[in-house]
């Protein structure tokens, strides 16, 4: 059975308390509500970004359609203006003037059809531009919310890290001068047993596993010398005696 000064064993409980606090702070840092909120906002921002790209593409396509429709209408108008100018000049034979007049009528119908197409595309463009503005606004709002929550996360993390730094300094003092073998055993057990390598023996109960020791084990522990390092038969943790009233 390993040995270590009884005072060192009792001081080990202080180290354990500080290690437990560090574990709690690390857990708190990993599970900040801001982190879940940021993840939620990231998903929403991502969805809206996809919608934003789709909407922008649709608007650009419709703008090209409007430009083409306007060009088609302008082409017909220009042709009609040239024909009208030739008619107004009186140049050409009667047959030529009649052909020009017939063409003007055809161009007028064609212009009417093209203007309807132009109007329909412009209406679609207007609707898509409004939708794009709405998606852009929603995207900006979510990005703004994310920025705010990220600031809250950073503040919370800084607060936790500052406390953890203080606790680590306290732990360094608490472990300084302790029996090296005792500390090594404690660290090994802490790694194996979920962060708790030492526990107080209070009455007949181990405060690590919260189980009562059987009378035979308890008698063996009580018979051991004060500097013997005893361990719980149930969980294997170092059992610190003489601190049950601390």
TrEMBL record:
Coiled-coil region list: 52-117
Pfam families listed in its UniProt record: CT398_CC, Zn_ribbon_9
Residue span(s) of domain CT398-like coiled coil hairpin: 15-193
Keywords: Coiled coil
Limits of the C4-type zinc ribbon domain: 205-239
Presence of keyword Coiled coil: yes
Cited InterPro entries: CT398_CC_hairpin, Oxidative_Scav/Glycosyltrans, Zf-RING_7
Name this polypeptide is given: C4-type zinc ribbon domain-containing protein
């Amino acid at each position: 059975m390993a040995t270590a000064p009884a005072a060192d064993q009792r001081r080990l409980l202080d180290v354990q308390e500080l290690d437990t606090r560090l574990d709690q702070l690390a857990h708190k840092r990993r599970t900040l509500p801001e982190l879940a909120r940021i993840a939620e906002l990231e998903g929403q921002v991502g969805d809206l970004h996809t919608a934003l790209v789709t909407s922008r593409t649709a608007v650009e396509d419709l703008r090209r359609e409007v430009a083409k429709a306007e060009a088609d209408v302008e082409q017909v108008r220009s042709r009609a203006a040239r024909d009208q100018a030739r008619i107004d000049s009186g140049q050409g034979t009667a047959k030529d003037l009649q052909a020009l007049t017939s063409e003007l009528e055809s161009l007028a119908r064609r212009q009417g059809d093209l203007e309807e197409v132009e109007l329909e595309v412009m209406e679609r463009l207007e609707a898509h531009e409004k939708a794009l503005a709405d998606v852009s606004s929603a995207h900006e709002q979510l990005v703004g919310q994310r920025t705010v929550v990220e600031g809250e996360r950073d503040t919370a993390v800084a607060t936790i890290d500052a406390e953890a730094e203080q606790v680590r300094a306290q732990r360094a003092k608490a472990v300084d001068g302790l029996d090296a073998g005792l500390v090594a055993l404690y660290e090994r057990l802490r790694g194996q047993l979920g962060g708790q390598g030492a526990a107080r023996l209070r009455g007949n109960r181990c405060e690590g596993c919260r189980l009562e020791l059987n009378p035979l084990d308890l008698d063996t522990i009580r018979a051991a010398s004060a500097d013997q390092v005893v361990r719980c038969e149930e969980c294997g943790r170092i059992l610190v005696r003489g601190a049950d009233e601390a």
